[in-house]
Specification:
By secondary structure, the protein is of the alpha+beta class. 15% of the residues lie in helices and 26% in strands. The two termini are 36 Å apart.
Length: 576
């Protein structure tokens, strides 16, 4: 089992998702003491037993307890009944553990068995700026807190900041108390009406009112040292309350873990040239079928949304891709009219447990009107059920986070999509209950205006048509923000009045071109049925703002019923 482990992982259940108990990263060479994807070197206890079994997953090997922790190999790898065969989805894909490493690691029984396992993390933090005489520091840590016996926990605790004057946060250094459970931390600033918390509390993906990200830490990083040009505003006149979120991962479901990890904040009254922010682009509707080698989804901040969101140029300093355990590749690009896509990140392969922080010595400029797109590729061979969007480690996400300046040029801190619905600007002013009901007075008036001023046969461009189309877009948020989505949905319904409306819209050369977004790269619209609530799921997974609250119930339709990315275009920005 030296060079063939990349084939052997397919011969054991969940062979691609066995975790490293030290870092929770994937232990790629399951049968070796060396966890890396290259494999080789001495075998661990499971590797020796697997070799003795002829590199075959047999019932005997399944029922063995190779690492001596009281659980059979089958129990640890998700085949408790020892019925799995190669090519099948394992019966269990959650709560797995390593069949060659005795767990939990801090158990007295396991101490002598794991003397070959080195959990030391070499992550010394270096940042020249923190040694300047004007720089101060503040340590924020969780009190000693019991870690729930759950696969995934999101817990938040709030901290007060000095309010005597304005400061710039210029760096954060991680303090990791328990690397058996710490996966990542998110530091966010809070609104003025958010107070202190008495104890750490469950908060899933973040505390309400604390949605502006300042800093991220994850396994493999020692901290963040921000670009010398920028800082995050804190203190008087800015934010004086922070929320620190811990993401704990406890795959062994141990009830013995405690944690008091945190951050050292480095800040200065000597304000830097620019104020920084963190921005998010992504997709908040994911449906990943089981047993697939490759499923690609995309999230786009469209040209329209980019113009709505950015009041001037912004400059990207660093970017960080984010998916969960099914994610295998992700990239993020800027698409500018008339130019080739500019690739900003390209994690292929991608690892949820070993994310890459892409930093740019030369900042990358984004203009209002540039399209920002991230493509996420998932592999679901280990799943027997559909995986959807969600906060849990075994649900999925598709986001890119980037640090930028100046923060004043962004009116929002995110620009996402729900399928093909753009969540930007005043999108929540769109009344989805009525826009698809041709008998609704407001919708009927919109359609009648276009049919009056534009040629419903498409043969000619009437003189009054351009002004009518402009007025419609100005007055109707649905058309203004989500033209392509409305267009495609009207076309799919094939209602005669809707088809005449679309033809009239296209009767003048100035009108928006017919949408060209490849349907294979986005979440399709729900099935079109006469009494179905087409948008029943739109707000289920949107947790960042009050979204589409009046869309989801009792919709009655009273009638008959990004550009693809250029994989060859790589950016030339220098990374370090």
């Amino acid at each position: 089992m030296t060079s063939g482990h990349r084939l052997f992982v397919y011969k054991i259940p969940n062979g691609l998702t066995v975790k490293n108990p030290c870092t929770h990263d994937i232990w790629s060479a399951v049968g070796h003491r060396e966890a890396s994807i290259l494999g080789g070197g001495p075998l661990n206890a499971f590797g020796r037993d697997f070799a003795a079994a002829g590199h075959v997953w047999s019932e005997a090997l399944c029922r063995q307890d190779s690492d001596g922790d009281g659980k059979s190999n089958g129990e640890e790898l998700g085949d408790p009944d020892c019925t799995w065969t190669p090519g099948q989805a394992p019966k269990v894909s959650l709560g797995l553990s390593h069949p060659g490493v005795c767990e939990p690691m801090n158990d007295a029984v396991c101490a002598s068995k794991n003397d070959w396992v080195d959990c030391t993390l070499d992550t010394e933090f270096t940042c020249d700026a923190i040694n300047q005489p004007d720089v101060r520091n503040l340590t924020i840590r969780f009190p000693r807190t019991k870690v729930p016996a759950l696969e995934t926990s999101y817990v938040c605790f709030n901290f007060e900041l000095p309010d005597d004057q304005e400061y710039h946060l210029i760096a954060t250094e991680a303090i990791i108390d328990n690397n058996n459970v710490m996966h990542h931390m998110v530091l966010s600033s809070c609104n003025d009406d958010v107070g202190l918390t008495e104890a750490p509390e469950d908060c899933m993906m973040g505390r309400q009112g604390c949605d502006a990200i300042l800093s991220l830490w994850t396994v493999g990083l020692s901290g963040e040292c921000f670009n010398p040009k920028v800082g995050f505003r804190i203190g008087k006149g800015a934010t004086t309350m922070l929320s620190l979120q811990h993401h704990w991962t406890n795959p062994s479901l141990s009830e013995e873990y405690y944690d008091s990890s945190g951050l050292i904040l480095y800040y200065t009254p000597k304000l830097r040239e620019y104020n920084a922010g963190v921005f998010t682009v992504g997709q908040v509707s994911l449906t990943i079928p089981p047993g697939q080698d490759s499923v690609t989804e995309q999230g786009t901040c469209t040209e329209y949304c980019s113009k709505e969101t950015f009041s001037g140029d912004i400059h990207i300093l660093s970017a960080y891709n984010h998916m969960h355990y099914l994610g295998i590749a992700q990239n993020f690009s800027i698409i500018r009219p008339g130019e080739s896509p500019l690739r900003i990140t390209n994690d292929d392969p991608y690892s949820y447990d070993s994310p890459v922080l892409n930093e740019y010595k030369t900042p990358i400029t984004v203009h209002p009107g540039d399209e920002l797109t991230t493509f996420c590729t998932f592999q679901s061979r280990s799943r027997s059920e559909v995986t959807t969007y969600g906060q849990g480690s075994y649900e999925e996400m598709c986001f890119v986070f980037f640090t930028f300046y100046p923060v004043e040029n962004a009116t929002e801190n995110q620009c996402n999509q729900y399928g093909k619905v753009n969540l930007c600007g005043d999108y929540d002013s769109c009344d989805f209950e009525t826009i698809f009901d041709v008998t609704n007075a407001k919708t009927k008036a919109m359609i009648d205006m276009i049919l009056e001023h534009c040629d419903e046969t498409g043969a000619t461009c009437k003189a009054s048509c351009p002004a009518a189309v402009h007025e419609m877009r100005k007055e109707n948020a649905c058309i203004r923000v989500n033209y392509e989505f409305i267009y495609d949905t009207y076309k799919d319904y094939a209602h005669p009045t809707m088809l005449k409306f679309l033809t009239a819209l296209e009767s003048c050369d100035h009108q928006e071109p017919k949408p060209t977004t490849p349907t294979s790269m986005v979440t399709p619209a729900p099935p079109m049925t006469g009494s179905a609530s087409m948008f029943m799921d739109i707000i289920k997974h949107l947790d960042s703002r009050p979204l589409l609250q009046n869309i989801i119930m009792n919709v009655n339709y009273n009638y008959n019923q990004p550009r693809s990315n250029d994989d060859s275009a790589e950016h030339s920005a220098e990374m370090h």
